[in-house]
Batch of 2 targets.
Target 1
Amino acid sequence: MKGSDAVNGVGIARQGAGYAVKLNLVRPANTDAVPSRVDGVPVKVEVVGQIEKRSRKAAVK
Amino acid sequence: MHLSSVREVKASLSGSGEAGSGLDVDAITPFGLPSRRKADVQRIQPSVALGVAPGKELGDYRLAVRVQHPNLLRSSYVRRAVEVARGEADVRLIGHLVKRDTSYQERHRPIEPGISVGHFRITAGTIGCCVERGRKTFILSNNHVLADENAGKPGDDILQPGGADGGRRPRDVIAALARSVRLDARGSNTMDCALAELKPNVEFDVVPFGMRRHLQSEPVAPDAGVRVEKVGRTTGHTRGRVTAFEVDDVVVRYDFGNARFDGQVEIAGGQAPFSAGGDSGSLIFTTGDRRPYALLFAGSDIGGPTGTGVTYANPIGPILDRLKVGLLA
């Protein structure tokens, strides 16, 4: 999914006693092409939505 | 479910006259009350709030059922809400809501990490921490808080509290913009940070607002699963857990457009969000040994283990190295 505008981050997460690759999405997307493991490392997929700076005018009360 | 269907379900339940709809002290009694004089008990008690929650995909919605007392999770009202929504209900225990503490947004002297601040043209963010280089003392926060997303110039006025919290020039000027790391709209960014030099007459305290214990000065390298805390202008003192680190290709929406970040830390809160708008610039530190961890700068409203959104932060070590400053703890 490299280059997909649905992807909003790829990082490292904890899973059990080890680590996993975490694939963040802006919105729900077809992830059939995403393997459950890469070289034995689990892959977690999560929808985190649009990320914004934390001082956006509309959000400041 | 269609949005109109959710609204119909919500309207039918709201007009039922059962617990949860305009619940008062008599209706909540079966679920338990604190033992005190009846005259001292609030007439309106924590109950069940109904709303609209996002469904599994765009255009799909569910009935949001927000429960404010654990006993109400087993109530006939909540069961009926789920039945009427034909199972398409998002039921969550949110606990007792209290008005937000606004003291972090007020004017404070001496200034302290965790309170409102901002370049004179922006709304408000948070003082992350105090740092030093030579004999000069600075406050550290985000570029978009102290340098107005690259638009600020050295010497620009920095206000405490920020403009959105009533800060005005010249009365509330505490510092002058000294240096910022430029936000790159085309390439990759690793940090959103800036320094402002404190005015000579402005006193400061290095312990975050509302806390008693000092932080340590030595940063810790990111890892996942670490428990962390922060003090920020909007949500105050919150706790969370690092859900990912070394996160690349994070696209963040700014006023000037989108910017891409690599090497970021992702944090999620518990039942409440770890951060909200106005918390930008907060220093995140580890729970327990209280070591500096990261500088908060962005977030989302969905995702995370409890669905309350995720927060993104720049690892603090590289920021201190880049700006050639030492953290005052």
Target 2
Amino acid sequence: MSENESTIETGQLTLRRFEKWSHHQNVCLTCGLCSSACPVAGVDDFDPRKIVRMVALGMEQPLVEARWPWICTMCGKCAEVCPMQIEIPEIMRRIRSLRQRSSVPGILHKGLAMALRTGNNLGLPKEDFIFILEDVAEEVAAEPGFETFQVPIDQPRARVLTTIHNKLVNTHTDDLKHWWKIFHAAGESWTVAADNWEGTSWGYFTGDDEAMRVMAGRIVENMRRLQIDTLMWPE
Amino acid sequence: MNFQDSAVAVVGGGVTGLTAAELLARRGIAVTLMEKSPFLGGHAAQLACKAIDACVQCGACVVEEKLRQVGRVPGITVWSGAHIDAVQGTTPLTIGYHRHTFGVDRTKCDGCGQCLEHCPAAGALVRGRGADLMPVVAVRRELCHFYADESCRRCQEACPQGAIDLAEVEQRGRLTADAVLVATGFTPFDPTPKPYGYGRFKNVVTLLDLEHRLRRQTLLTRPSDDAPPQRMAYIQCVGSRDTQLGHNWCSQICCASALRQARLIRARQPQIDITLFYIDLQTVGQPFQSGPDADADGLHRVRNIPADIIEKAGGELAVIYFDPRTRCSSEDRFDMVVLSVGMTPAADNHRLADHFGLVLAESGFLSRAPAANSPARGIFCAGAVQGPMRIAESVRDASRAAGEIISYLSHNGDLP
Amino acid sequence: MKSNVLIYGDGACAHAIAGRLSHRQVSVCLAMTGGAGGQDLPAPLVGDRPQVIHHTRLAQVRGTAGDFRVRLAAAGAMRELSAAALVISQSAQQQPTFSAYGLVPGPRVVRLSEADQEGRLAPNAGDTVLLLNSWETESHPAVVDGLLRLSEGLIRNKGVRLFYLTGNLKVAATGLEARCEALKAAGAVFVKLTGQQPSIVRLDDGRIRVDCTDELLNLPLTIIADWVVVDETVVPNGESDHLAPLLGLERDAGGFLQSGNVHRLPHHTNRQGIFVAGLSRGIILEADIETEAGSTARAVLDFLNTPLQADAAAAQINQGRCARCLTCYRLCPYGAVSISDFEEGPRVSVAAAACQGCGICVAACPAVAIELTGVNGREIAAQLAKPLPVKTQEPFIAAFCCARSAEAAHQLARTMGWGLPTALRVIAVPCGGSVAVAHLMAALEQGAEGVLVGTCHDGNCHSESGNRRARQRIAQAQQLLTAAGIDRRRLCQVSLAANQGRRFAEALTAFQSELRSLKA
């Protein structure tokens, strides 16, 4: 019996809980390279080694309940430096996937649920989406040198299909202009889809593989529909 | 037992090859010692003595002794610049080779160094000691302008002895040997791909670089401006214990080397602050087993490996690591960082294995599995070509191999 | 020289050496303290079968290299043997570390070397087995090798929950890192301790409870172990305390029968003809025993096939001058001086086969009764008298340099052209200990403004004590100088290794500056 609730009693551990996870989580050298590389190490006591250790010890409950796995930005620096090739970002995702969706922090799941229902995180209707794009396009066309600019929507057989981050049609619409001008000046052949244009991948971020598959599937469907081979997917 | 008619080729002139050559020649065996670089001694000969009040058993002077012994014992022919081209037969073996003399006639060169003063290409001329331990110069083709486009002959023109002939041609030939010992050693890990700035930041060096400095300097200075450093860091396990690189071994010598170096530097220059970043400190062998207390040497120890080094204004090195004591990401400033690089298989192990019919382990070193490289056809192996090995162990392994070769020759080529 | 060898020791290494030497037609006697082993030594094609003696102890060794006369005590009687060479290769002792962890041996608490014994360690699937592998002290790869082997068996065959507690995990030997990785992949949990003091208590039911902090999680960790395996330290065979003085052998700081001096590598001792191998000379991994045996056999064969040193090359005691003070007998680091009885009384002589020519006896002999080529007074005087090649205003320095270190460093400095004073006479001597007070005085008498003695570093002197004796002689000479009103700083000592050419040049230059300042 322990007085301190957070004491780990090895007798209580289900050491083999994550045995089937093949992310090399058991062979940690405790070298600390991941912690040293991590941009958020030390924030709220976060340390990627903790996650690896808890998985190796089979500590499922604390992992699901802890805040730590959600602090990770998924930047992947840890995996790059790890000498034992432990797939830390993959581990993060899988831990995140263990949580009930209703417990997913913040708006992450809510936004994802909206995207699954409506095709984008904001629930922005198609007409409004097109209206916003064309409105910004007019502003671009008003600038000298860009008189012929038009925003290509659902253009079949364009060279590049691009997704749109929802903030670009919400709070940061001006940021659309920069890359539109570059594409125009370069003479690039590109388009956006009118439906399922959402570029953020909160299914990836929250460890929801099924949602991730659906969202990615919609983008691929757009590519098939428009007969486009090249995808630009900035996130 | 009379070995007057026996000839052995020892491939590799480092501590293992030198030891074996002397042990064989003592018994009257004719030895040809083949070394691909201009100078004998290998890596171990580049080490500095790290004694403070007493010897710390680093083994560097052992190599020095072997060099002198090899120079004195009759019956050893030393070929520098020698490379293996082909191997045929079995006792006797026929070894095809080519040699070049690094552009310098050693019988004429007296090591005066005038050529060095005229050479415009940094590092293209190196000065060391020849087999007889007299100073001699060698041209490094990969850096020399003449070998690039024949645009420069200044060293040749400046040499008062006429010892330099840049246009010298390789000699090719065949050597007959009753047995061969492969003792080609290792390559130190090149940390350029690691995020520590090696090759870009002047004050980031390897353990071996530091040994070179300690050989030349009693008071250590840093490469950028020759001023003494104030804060030094050692980063252990660079290139070792690393499955990402395919190096899942401990190189065995780096912790001891780093500790010896750091203690020596602090003994001579106590104002220099030294921090050691480590995973598990390997303190095997003399003098650590019963040596000074860990805390008494004044080194700071941090049990974590840094992930990044960034050069700041003025050349300061910011080392980024997670401090396990404060549990925070930290950035400490140092003005010199030493990377404790490990031992890796030499790049030409594959070629040598092909020539001699040897088996490589997954690591790339020669396999030590019992049946893998048991001597057949008179081909033997010794030393760090088989994996990380200390100087003391290399000397022992050379002794073991020399014994096997002598036994093999005694049985007229039959394995006992 | 006869070619018979006495190998003293139980264990795999002694056995392997015996087999190899016997195969090479050396007459081998394997003397063991235990009662088992040695029966399967192969008979050579030519020559005697190896002789094996059990239940015996080394009682006395007389004689010298090439001609040792040994007495072995067996069953209350003495056996006499002669041997050209001796090999000491005993097994080491594993000492348990129970008390380091606050534990006592018990049904559930086992030491590593007993863990394999039938019934000692009998976990059921799901039991927690805890291995304790040192954190306040440093362990050794040889011990880790054993712990890993035990762990591999347990985790593969028994399905136990394995926890391994250690400070610094010692993986500095072939294959250990890969084996640790494989064990972790199979589910073993390694807990690293950095400066922690875990609490270890025995519970009423006999299980062991360990409380510590998991340093990765920064959380308290409690391990309740059904079985605990404690590691061991490897120390020299208990007989080493007795053997060292018996054989006149040096010991290293850990008590093993080979000095840590790198000159002894791999199998030499301070006594010619006496070799040390395996766990008699240090902690050797099991995987290296065959290499150890092969290397030792080669060294012994080389010794047997090399003619013994001729008398003329060794130190010679002039019997007419010898006062039988036994100073040389006591000082000789190589045990080369012996006392024998003659009709006229005791006679002290140097065994040429054992003499290493260090010259310590020559310098120490109060009767100046010992001669050795190269260090005799008149030879030294002749060298000092030679005129310098260049006339100079610089203070003339005479430097007595040990051939193995300072003289080699001098050669390095000279060939590489690192600034040496021009008014320098270097006299090579076999050892710093061969420099007598008389030599130092002779140098000053011959016009040297300063005399430097260059020796090996402590622990690196081939004669082990030569550099210390050099310092003593300098101190004695400095007392004489002070009494005569001469500045004591005209004598100095520097310790060097053979590869310290720069340091040699720096030391000489610094000495020269000091002498110049004294002049003024």
